[in-house]
Amino acid sequence: MPVPQLTHEDKLDYTPTARSVSLARRRTARLVAEWGRADRAGDVALIVSELATNALLHGSLRGRLFRVRLVMSATVVRIEVSDPRGERMPRKRRGVGSTSGYGLVLVGGLADRWGTEPRTVGKTVWAEMELRDRSATRPCAPGRSGG
What we know:
It is a single chain. This protein is an alpha+beta fold. Helix content is 31%, strand content 27%. Strands 1-2-3-5-4 form a five-stranded antiparallel sheet, covered by helices on one side. Helix 2 (38-58) runs antiparallel to helix 3 (103-110). The longest helix is centred in the N-terminal third of the chain and has 21 residues, at 38-58. The radius of gyration is 15 Å and the shape is globular.
């Protein structure tokens, strides 16, 4: 399968603070809109926000940064958030009564696929979203919104 031609890339390291999550979300929305996909900027920014929050809450170490990387081709946007805690892998949502643990449910609902990759130090949690027209989205399936 041919590799899609890269059209845009951005990466930036953030300090593990709550303010960094909002900075990453706003930067993502601005970049995706500037890259010509304002229609997807909100969804991509929400994915960044959820993954960055997880990096902050579950993957941070004192004095170590987390990284947000965006890669966009003509057909897909890939969001990667890397943190220094490779032993703390994402887990499925806790029980129904839990008030936390829904971030990856949101990511799974917005992204076409997501996963993790080990790094020499730490891990990367990634999500990919196909860049197709909204009118051409797949029909509603359990756990997904229709558009």
